[in-house]
Amino acid sequence: MLFDTSSPGRKRAVQIIFASLAILMGGGLVLFGIGSSQSGGGLTDIVNNGGQSTLADQGKKDAESAQKALDKNPKDVAAAEKLARARFAIANEEAFDQTGNVIDAKAQALVTAADEAWTNYLKLAPAEPSRAVSASYSSFYAYPGVAQYDKAARALEVNLVSRPPSAGLYAQLAIYWLFGGSTEKYADARREAIKLAESDSRKAGITKQLDDYKKQYDEAIAAQAKQAKEAEKEQETSPSGTSPKIKTLPLLQ
Question: In the chain, how many domains are there?
């Protein structure tokens, strides 16, 4: 684990850090060109067209039929893909509030079901993984309520296999690996993003954005480490039975 969440205070601090980073990432990816038509898949690609209620309802129907097919044949790749699509649609519509945070225990169960469906789909090693599904899960794992950036990075890597490489997508991958705790993979994706940039101004823009993310990330990690030391020190000096005060980290600006 990248962060120590053994105490409630630290866990809360980590949640604040991840939520702040996710907000920063959402804004930055627009500058990278992510979230537009080039991102290669989204909710409207996952289930039939319609309103929000239709998306969730259709997802539930698809999930039921896909699960029945998998019960008969656990190696049915098409059914596994269908289930991953459906579970994403359900979780996306019913598990999150407008900020992307999981809102209750029932919602968390929907998130877990989506995660399990995607993981099972990958285990079956599809010859041509769905671009739409992989793109959707790369965003899904970056939601503040999920915050599993290593999985977001792996889903995006699956997506990159079936599409032409682009500077924006590799910049997104660099950020996911940074938040996921792999500075080495962050550096690799960063180099590729800058290499693929089509102009000097694009190179400069991506470089600046990634530098800003790295700075914010390093500051968040340092702040969390400092808070952990302060909490331990207060625990040592606190009277028996008295809970030390845990300082809450401010949101990153």
Answer: 2
What is the C-alpha separation between 195 and 214, in angstroms, rounded? 19
pLDDT, tens digit (0-9, with 9 covering 90-100), for 20-76: 555 445 444 444 444 433 344 444 344 444 445 577 789 999 999 999 999 999 999
- The reported pTM is 0.75
Structure tokens given for 252: 């990153």
Q: How many Å apart are CA 206 and CA 226, to the nearest integer?
A: 30
- Write out the two tokens for 178: 């940074």
Query: Mean pLDDT in the chain?
Result: 79
Does 124 share its domain with 91? yes
Q: Is 51 in the same domain as 120?
A: yes
